[in-house]
Amino acid sequence: MVFVQLSDPHLLGSAQDRLYGLDTDARLRQALEHLCEHYPEAEFVTISGDLSGDGCYESYQRLSRMLADLPMPSYPIIGNHDDRRAFARWFPDLVDERGFVQYVREFGERVFCFLDTVVEGEEYGELCEYRLEWLGRQLERYRDRELCLVMHHHPIPSGLLRMDRIAPFRSYGAFWDLLGEYGNVRAIFHGHLHLTVSGMHRGVWIHSAPSTSFSLLYHPDRREEYFTPDLPGAYSVITYTPQGWRVNRQEFEGVRLYRESVLGEGESPYYDKKDEI
User: Residue 232 belongs to what domain range?
Assistant: First the structure.
């Protein structure tokens, strides 16, 4: 199977608004046009949160129109900058009876659970008792199938100083204990980091998709991280093969337009690490 994971587009209330000088609407449209041209065989597209940068109703309206033009199904979830009620107005089929954005889709042998890790008004993520119980029911229901999870917050410490301090996933212990009871989760796909990271934890493959808007640069030797718009937007093309999961980080045009139209001569593309993400 092949699917595409986009993340953190950060659309704003008005299509004329800019984030760090970026036209986030244009960047997302560019990504969608690019994937339709180059990966028309993808079974679906998911967007792993921070669909909106300010939670405005209008940003979800524009998003729904963009996704309606895709030739394949799309499955967005929310992140810490999103608003559940505004999202639900345009994506009611993806919201459960309690108002959480969590749902299940089956793709042949594999089942995808899309999770809602948002705590309203907070940067950090969490699965409350109700959401953990919901996940437990899916693990039990599909205990003889391979499960993949899609979520916004990173499910293990990322090594990024700010993200692990201010915006972690606080259900870490209970979440992994629950997964360990069943052992049928094979992969987790998340966003939030604005950075491509992949690895293994307790036998589960974990992948963080890049952002279609601004990016995070990490220098592990200096333990420094910066948010910058001066990189091309990107998304992940994920393929399942008999040997396991394979990811292609796909960049699309965008950085040249930013450099020519926004950055002045001598201006730095970097933003201080205290900037919000």
Answer: 2-261
How far from the centroid of its chain's Cα atoms is residue 28's Cα? Answer: 13
Residue-wise pLDDT tens digits, 163-200: 888 889 999 999 999 999 999 999 999 999 999 989 99
110 falls within a domain: yes
Strand pairing category for 110-114 and 146-151? parallel
Domain CATH number, residue 137: 3.60.21.10
d(Cα 186, Cα 184) in Å, to the nearest integer? Answer: 6
- Per-residue model confidence as pLDDT tens digits over 209-257: 999 998 888 776 666 777 778 788 999 999 998 888 899 999 986 544 4
Domain assignment present for residue 276? The answer is: no
Look at residue 152 and tell me if it is in a domain. Answer: yes
Residues 6+ positions from 271 with CB-CB distance below 8 Å: 20, 226, 227, 228
The tens digit of pLDDT for each residue in 119-133 reads: 999 999 999 999 999
Dist CA 234 CA 7 (whole Å): 9
- Looking at the DSSP bridge assignments, the partners of residue 216 are 227
Q: Is the dihedral of CA 77, 240, 35, 167 positive or negative?
A: positive
Q: How many domains does the chain have?
A: 1
